[in-house]
Amino acid sequence: MPLTANQQRVLEVLRSAEAPLGAYALLERLSSDGFSAPTQVYRALDVLIRHGLAHRLETLNAYVACRLEACRHGLTAFAICDDCGRIDELVDNALSSCLGNLVERRDFSPGSTTIEIHGTCSECAGALSEPTRHPKVKP
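Above: the chain's sequence. Below: its structure in token form.
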């Protein structure tokens, strides 16, 4: 599926970002590219999400580019470090199957499934256990 120039530019900014970005942070970064209204960003994000190229993190009210090739899986899980802000996208077929069985027994048809797991990554956990280092500041 070919992307419009706006969609491609939003995707490029998401891919180059070191952390999830909110729509207004995206708008700020894209203003020199002719973006002048939040609706331009939201329209591009909607298409990118629909095609599995980006994800919305509900608890952060922010967006990330999909880090998996051709993200077409039904379940997306994210491990979000509350100390450094690192985001890891996770895929687990067993978890997808288990949740699929649960909703099937309820005769429910989910549209999308995103799981967000907040905690501390191993790097930050190691930093917290070393007496000479300090916890990382939240971005």
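The two ends are 34 Å apart (CA to CA).
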